[in-house]
């Protein structure tokens, strides 16, 4: 999970949670079903075109809008390995970590990436390499404790594992 290669799926600024997963699907609770409707109002082909390991590359304030966890669940369910953006809405940032969706802020990488570029992302070092341009961008990696949460698959799984490791009581 630390070093990943995939295709970029590029979006602009202020992609809100209603665009990521339209409100009409909020009664759905599985990531697989949410994934079938991810981005359908702005990129109808997204769900059928995305491949496991691809990346969303987006502008400023990605994930603005409501605080629903459905948005990062839909993205993760679609197989997106990481979202790279110029900036994230605060609540989306936290929800992404809570659901185990890797995210990186790197305005330079967003600026230098086009739709369909092949990227290699190393979460541990905070590097993003673009094979089309030959550029490598460096940003601050996620802190180790957040990497542990993401690696566990989200906050609930992380907490469950920690409790099981430190207790005789099975959670």
Supply database-style keywords.
33% helix; 171 residues; Aconitase, domain 4
Describe this entry's structure for a reader.
The chain contains 8 helices and 7 strands. It has 171 residues and is α/β, with parallel strands linked by helices. It has a single domain (3-165), classed as Aconitase, domain 4. A hairpin with a 4-residue loop joins strand 5 and strand 6. The chain is globular, with a radius of gyration of 16 Å. The model has no long low-confidence stretch (mean pLDDT 94).
Briefly characterize the structure:
The protein is an alpha/beta fold. It contains 8 helices and 7 strands; from the N terminus they run βαααβαβαβαβββαα.
Walk me through the topology.
Layout: E1 3-10, H1 17-20, H2 31-35, H3 46-49, E2 55-58, H4 70-77, E3 82-85, H5 90-99, E4 103-105, H6 107-111, E5 118-122, E6 127-130, E7 136-138, H7 144-152, H8 155-165
Parallel strand pairs: 1-2, 2-3, 3-4
Antiparallel strand pairs: 1-5, 5-6, 6-7
Helix pairs in contact: 4-5, 7-8
């Amino acid at each position: 999970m630390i070093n990943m290669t995939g295709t970029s799926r590029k979006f602009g600024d202020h992609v809100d949670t209603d665009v990521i997963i339209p409100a009409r699907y909020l009664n759905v609770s599985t990531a697989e079903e949410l994934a079938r409707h991810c981005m359908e109002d702005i990129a109808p082909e997204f769900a059928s075109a995305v491949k496991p390991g691809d990346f969303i590359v987006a502008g400023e304030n990605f994930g603005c809008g409501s605080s629903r966890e459905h948005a990062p669940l839909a993205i993760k369910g679609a197989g997106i390995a990481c979202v790279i953006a110029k900036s994230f809405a605060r609540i989306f940032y936290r929800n992404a970590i809570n659901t185990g969706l890797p995210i990186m802020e790197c305005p330079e990488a967003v600026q230098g990436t086009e739709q369909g570029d092949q990227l290699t992302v190393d979460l541990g070092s905070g590097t993003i390499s673009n094979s089309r341009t030959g550029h490598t961008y460096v940003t601050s990696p996620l802190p180790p404790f957040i990497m542990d949460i993401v690696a566990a698959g989200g906050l609930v799984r992380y907490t469950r594992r920690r409790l099981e490791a430190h207790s005789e009581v099975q959670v």
